[in-house]
Structure formats: structure tokens, C-alpha cells
Amino acid sequence: GEAGGWTAHKQKLSINMTKNTEKDLLIAGNKPVKIMVSVLALMAAVPIQPARAQLSVTCTQAMNFGAVLVPANAGNITITPSSAFSATGGLSVIHNPQPGKCYIKTLAATAAPSVVVSIGVKRTDITNATGGKIRVTDFNLKTPNGGRTVTYSSVSLANGFIVGIGAQGQYSKNESRGSYSGTITITATTP
């Protein structure tokens, strides 16, 4: 759509997941336990900016909260932009979570002294087919405390750079099993 004379272009990210994202896991005593996989896809938006460096944003990796045993208690999984993660509330993470990653570069020879990358929402919900939802909040770009907007100064746009995206997934007690997904938009502009 158009906003302030700029046209936003969005690019849908394809998620590489196995066909069967809900699996039986055998643990002690050979009892099957259902697990859930939650993924937050990233969309890229680049406003059209006359007389400025034209940017390309390609999101190459969805934010993935991993596979988690259905929680008996509420808890959180926090992913940092650099791939570290932590789990609270007794959540058992079976498959390591991964941050989102987007690649930003210029489309023209014109260089930009800085690039502002932002996430417009403070929080969003990822959902499954049966109506279950996991709240995703505390988005961070670049560093664990980077916040939702970061300015990259003196970056080499010709070669491009990767932006790591972290967040916190908030799981409710006895969250319903299944595969959870959702989408957020990443925006890159030159001041």
C-alpha cells in the first residue's frame, strides 16, 4: 500500500520445515509424547525512496522456537539475534530454537550512510490449526537488547549484511500441541 508517498513491497518467506512437524517422541519407558514446533515467518518491506539508495531485503531464515514438549507449566523461550536461547518455567526444548535472519543490500550504485531496520509490532500471536496461540513479544534486532528499531551506520550495502532477529515466545500451561506459525514484517529504510 502507499503511505506518505512511499510504496511498500513485501516478500513472503518460505519456511523449510519437514512435512510432519508434529512428531511422536519416544522417551524413557517408550511412551510417546507429542511435541510442538512453532515458527514465525518474516516478511520484508522496503519503501520506495526516490533519490535514495534502493534496498533489497530478503529474509532467509524464519524465527523458529524449536520443538517443545507440551508444557505442564507456563514458561518462556527467549531467542537472541545471535542464536543463543533460554527456556524458563520448566519448558523442555527438544530442537534448538533459531533466530530469524534477513539479508539487506543495495540495488543501485548509490550508497547510503546508514540503514534503519525495524519491526513495527510490539507483539504478535502465532497460532495452530486448533486455535491454540503462543504470544511472541520482546523483539530484538542485532543484539539481545537491540529493541525493535536499529540504525546501522557505515555499513557496506554493496556487499550487504545480515540482521539477526530475536524474540520471546510465551507458552501457556498445557498449551495445545501442534505446529504454530505467524508472520511479522521487517522494514529497511535509508534516512
Descriptive report:
It is built from no helices and 16 strands. The protein has strands at residues 2-3, 6-11, 24-27, 31-47, 55-61, 63-69, 75-79, 85-87, 93-95, 100-106, 114-119, 123-127, 133-141, 149-153, 161-171, 179-189. Strand 7 and strand 8 form a beta hairpin. The chain is elongated.
Summarize it.
The chain is mainly beta and 191 residues long. 0% of the residues lie in helices and 57% in strands.
Helices and strands, in N-to-C order?
EEEEEEEEEEEEEEEE
Counting DSSP E segments of at least 2 residues, the number of strands comes to: 16
Report the major sheet: 9 strands, mixed
Helix content: under 10%
End-to-end Cα distance, whole Å, is: 20 Å
Gross morphology? elongated
Strand content: over 45%
Are there runs of 5+ residues with pLDDT below 50, and where? 1-35
Structural class: mainly beta
Give the averaged pLDDT, no decimals: 74
Q: Please, how many helices?
A: 0
Task: Please state the CA-atom Rg, rounded to the nearest Å.
Answer: 18 Å
